[in-house]
Task: inverse folding
């Protein structure tokens, strides 16, 4: 494959990246081709040494989005990094998606418990307003305790969510390094 074909396929593989990032990547690879030609290599030798432009594009996208989630830990960036890492290989679908889904389910359950407990006092007060004849002071005291527990669980869940995001970014980076070159780069 010649330089034009390689760069065209690479550009298609990195279409999800911002325009300035795509331009930088394409410029770098054009320069790589220029240096290789100056060293006496043919365009076909250079492109074969670089490997598949599609796989290269997936790797570059994964690296970009994992770096983006480190800079700005938004949910959007996190899921872009997640999908970019999964797209590197079918094996990643099992290795990355499985633990993420399991831990996300635990996080979701923790947040549901925190919110549910925190809203028990509101529920008891509304129930008391609607059905005052079944009011028991015991319900108020229990709901106050559950609301306090819910707030504490919410605070803990906030910290756990940040911690888990940090470790998943590290896991994404490790996974990208493994796909790019095995353990020697890890």
Result:
């Amino acid at each position: 494959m010649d330089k034009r074909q390689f760069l065209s396929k690479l550009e298609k593989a990195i279409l999800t990246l911002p325009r300035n990032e795509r331009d930088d990547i394409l410029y770098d690879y054009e320069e790589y081709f220029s240096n290789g030609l100056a060293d006496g290599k043919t365009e076909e030798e250079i492109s074969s040494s670089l490997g598949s432009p599609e796989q290269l594009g997936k790797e570059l996208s994964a690296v970009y989005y994992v770096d983006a989630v480190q800079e700005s830990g938004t949910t959007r960036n996190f899921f872009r990094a997640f999908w970019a890492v999964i797209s590197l290989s079918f094996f990643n679908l099992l290795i990355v998606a499985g633990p993420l889904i399991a831990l996300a389910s635990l996080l979701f359950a923790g947040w549901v418990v925190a919110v549910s407990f925190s809203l028990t006092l509101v529920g008891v007060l509304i129930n008391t307003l609607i059905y005052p004849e079944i009011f028991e002071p015991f319900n108020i005291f229990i709901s106050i305790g559950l609301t306090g527990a819910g707030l504490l669980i919410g605070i803990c869940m906030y910290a756990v969510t940040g911690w888990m995001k940090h470790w998943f970014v590290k896991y994404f980076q490790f996974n990208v390094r493994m796909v790019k070159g095995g353990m020697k780069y890890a």
